[in-house]
Design brief:
This protein is mainly α. The chain has one domain (about 25-270, about 280-335): ABC transporter involved in vitamin B12 uptake, BtuC. It is built from twelve helices and two strands, in the order H-H-H-H-H-H-E-E-H-H-H-H-H-H. It has helices at about 5-40, 50-70, 80-95, 100-125, 130-150, 160-165, 175-195, 195-215, 220-245, 250-265, 280-300, 305-320; strands spanning about 170, 175. A two-stranded antiparallel ribbon has the order 1-2. Strand 1 and strand 2 (about 175) form a beta hairpin. Helix 3 (about 80-95) crosses helix 9 (about 220-245) and helix 3 crosses helix 10. The longest helix is centred in the first third of the chain and has 39 residues, at about 5-40. The protein is globular, with a radius of gyration of 20 Å.
């Protein structure tokens, strides 16, 4: 191959990579700018404590956003994510206690709870042939009912050593929660994205009929997506237990995190039509959404106006995610 052909090949590869990562790169740039503005106007300035507090709040939503990403990539939406999150919070407040060994076993129990919830969603969507939104509304109500049975009133506890470690700082003032999030990305997202199963999930979201005609394992891919979503929601449930030291069956928190996860994935460049985007972009989308709230606090916006402003951001985010419909003249183009 000539030098000119090689150069053209590299240029084409670069343009393809940039096109695929454009949403993630844009979300990263917006977050950096917003965070610089936030820390620059914070009364305490830029220091380890401010960064750690912001990281703990951002990581919590980022975990739920990653969970939502797995399902959105298949062109579905999981409205039970917040309920799984709250259920696992309540479960953790019972079993992540005692000695270090007992707490470790409790962590695995919480993760298995999330996996079971996600697997149930996947099985109903696949074999019940129901729309994901309808399915997850129903299962979410059931999950919340179980959480309410476990914790009719806020209470419980958590292993303090583990909680303090994961919500504190590592040497050098590095937020432990940010490192934990990086581990989640390295251990779960990247292997999934590079696997055949991950590629099938993208194919299903891009054009399910074409994926089916190509002989790909669509059912297996969908099941994996919903199961992994449950797992990430469980990790989020664990983390909020570490932050609050208690369990609470709060429908308000469940619904808020569900809606905010949708806003985060859109802000992170994940297409609501499936097949495009990444969990890394969703992470930066979550950090953007959290930083918006922090900026409202720093600039002393009246607390009564903050929910309205965040609601407008959520609405605009979803509208931007649906903007592709405006440009489509033929609905068949959705599968192109």
């Amino acid at each position: 191959m000539s030098d000119h052909a090689l150069s053209a090949q590299h240029s084409s590869d670069w343009r393809y990579w940039f096109g695929e990562q454009r949403g993630t790169l844009l979300a990263f740039a917006v977050f950096v700018i917003m965070f610089v503005i936030y820390t620059g106007n914070h009364p305490a300035g830029f220091n380890a404590n401010v960064v750690t507090t912001a990281a703990n709040k951002g990581v919590l939503l980022a975990l739920i956003a990653i969970a939502q990403t797995f399902v959105v990539l298949t062109s579905g939406i999981d409205l039970s994510i917040g309920m799984i999150f709250i259920l696992c919070n309540c479960v953790a407040s019972y079993i992540v206690v005692g000695t270090a060994l007992e707490a470790t076993l409790g962590v695995f129990g919480v993760l298995l709870t999330g996996l079971a919830c996600g697997a149930l969603n996947g099985l109903i969507v696949i074999y019940g042939r129901l729309q994901p939104i309808v399915t997850t509304i129903a299962t979410g109500a059931a999950f919340f009912g179980i959480a309410l049975l476990l914790r009719p009133f806020p209470g419980g506890a958590v292993h303090e050593g583990l909680a303090d470690f994961l919500t504190g700082q590592l040497p050098g003032g590095i937020p432990a929660s940010a490192v934990a999030l990086l581990v989640v990305v390295l251990v779960i997202w990247i292997p999934f994205r590079k696997s055949m199963l991950g590629r099938v999930v993208y194919a299903v979201g891009s054009a399910e009929p074409a994926a089916y005609m190509s002989g790909l394992h669509i059912q297996r891919a969908k099941f994996a997506a919903y199961t992994l979503a449950g797992l990430l929601a469980a990790i989020g449930g664990l983390f909020i237990t570490f932050v609050t030291y208690t369990g609470e069956a709060s429908s308000a928190n469940a619904n808020t995190y569900t809606l905010n996860s949708i806003a985060a994935v859109v802000l992170g460049g994940v297409s609501l039509f499936g097949g495009r985007g990444s969990a890394i972009g969703a992470i930066f989308g979550a950090l953007i959404y959290r930083t918006i709230g922090d900026l409202l606090f720093v600039f002393d916006l009246d607390a009564l106006w903050q929910p309205l402003f965040l609601g407008v951001v959520l609405l605009v985010s979803v509208c931007l995610g649906s903007f592709r419909l405006i440009r489509i003249r033929n609905r068949l183009d959705l599968f192109g």
